[in-house]
Design brief:
mainly alpha, two-stranded antiparallel sheet, 20 helices
Length: 411
């Protein structure tokens, strides 16, 4: 093959290589933003994804917007109807009441209880279960009145995201998927023009100065391409914040992420309601978190009142079965057993609670209604936190790719 043909092909390969370098380094930079989830290497030498390495800080920033702009838990719990909760829990509570009644009576007066006529037992069961709906209603009203003490959405959200770094990654990846695709492709879009400039400089050195392609050209331009393509891509994702006309009004442009606000709102609402602030996680926090003691007090107070009322209404039936002293023991045991079993029975209300709280639709609507500036604050922290690292990674990878490019093409 003639030398001039080889030279033309070498020069033509520079912008193509520039595009591939930009594309490849941007893909690598994005991957390094999220992966690996855990540190790989021997500290201090090694790498962990930028987001997983700062999981707590990222989680706090993400949840801040949720708890300050989108969600007030007391407003959501106002939508939960205590009467409906009582209805949902009815079958399991009735069964539980009969079971506990049999347990305590067998423990305190087995002989007499076994010989008690069935119709007397049924009357006692009926009097007990009659009190249960009112017990649940009053208990739910007390929970709603004290919901700020029982639930801390910020703690729940931050704990969920820091304990599960893959979930934290997934939230940003799913909400910013189009933007991350754009960053990857932008390496190709912007890399080729930079490569054309690089090619012109190479031609100047070879054909005008006659010195050959300088060894530093490809590495330096690789660094510039890696840096500039990431910097430009990040700028175009978030800026301009509001639609702006260019080229004498011929075309309008707005930051790519900002423009997708309605679409992102849908995805974000699904993630928060389905993976972060789930009904089960809210309930788990109530029974095991800092507010667990207060919840136990609410449940115990209501149970004691309900059982006292039940005993008063059935005293005429049971006074010949057990003594007053035994009744006091029975009351204490019944409270203890109900406290044990109630968390299981309340799970019957989860389906209704999800329907009543309606987290997904509410979050979607609220997020779609944020101002552009407020909305920018959701994804922007991912890049602001270590934006310089993301750009620097692209620059270093570009320089390495430029060195390899020079060796392969010109050596």
């Amino acid at each position: 093959m003639p030398d001039y043909i080889i030279q033309i092909l070498l020069f033509a390969s520079i912008p193509i290589s520039g595009g591939l370098v930009g594309w490849g380094t941007n893909i690598m930079a994005i991957k390094m933003t999220f992966y690996p989830i855990e540190f790989v290497g021997v500290k201090p030498i090694g790498w962990q994804g930028i987001i997983p390495s700062k999981a707590k800080k990222m989680a706090v920033k993400s949840v801040d917007m949720l708890t300050t702009k989108l969600l007030k838990i007391e407003e959501r719990f106002e939508l939960v109807k205590p009467e409906r909760v009582a209805m949902e829990m009815g079958p399991s509570l009735n069964k539980l009441a009969r079971q506990i009644t049999d347990e305590v009576m067998q423990a305190q007066a087995p002989t007499i209880w076994n010989s008690t006529p069935r119709f007397v037992k049924n009357q006692i069961y009926e009097n007990i279960t009659k009190e249960l709906p009112q017990l649940v209603v009053q208990m739910m009203n007390d929970i709603k009145d004290n919901i700020d003490e029982l639930l801390d959405l910020k703690t729940i959200g931050v704990n969920a995201l820091t304990k599960n770094k893959a979930l934290l990654n997934d939230m940003f990846i799913r909400c910013g998927k189009e933007e991350f695709k754009f960053i990857e492709k932008s390496g190709l879009y912007f890399g080729i023009p930079f490569g054309l400039v690089q090619m012109c400089i190479a031609i100047y050195y070879v054909n005008v100065l006659g010195t050959g392609t300088p060894w530093w050209l490809l590495p330096v331009f690789g660094l510039v391409i890696g840096y500039a393509t990431n910097w430009l891509a990040l700028k175009l994702i978030f800026e301009p914040l509001y639609p702006r006309k260019y080229l004498f009004g011929l075309f309008e442009f707005q930051g790519l992420f900002i423009k997708r606000q309605p679409e992102v709102a849908v995805e974000y609402a699904k993630i928060v309601s389905g993976d972060i602030l789930t009904t089960e996680r809210l309930f788990e926090f109530m029974v095991r978190g800092p507010g667990a003691t207060r919840l136990a007090e609410i449940v115990r107070d209501n149970l004691e009142k309900s059982i006292e009322t039940t005993i008063s209404s059935t005293r005429g039936l049971v006074k010949w079965v057990v003594s007053d002293k035994q009744l006091e023991v029975i009351q204490n045991i019944a409270v203890y057993r109900f406290m044990q079993e109630l968390p299981i029975s309340i799970r019957d209300t989860f389906a209704y609670a999800e329907e009543a709280l309606d987290m997904e639709n509410m979050l979607e609507e609220k997020m779609a209604g944020l101002t552009e500036k407020e909305f920018e604050g959701f994804l922007r922290p991912v890049f602001q936190e270590d934006e310089w690292i993301l750009i620097l990674v692209g620059a270093v990878l570009g320089m390495v790719a430029g060195i390899l490019q020079y060796i392969l093409l010109f050596q």
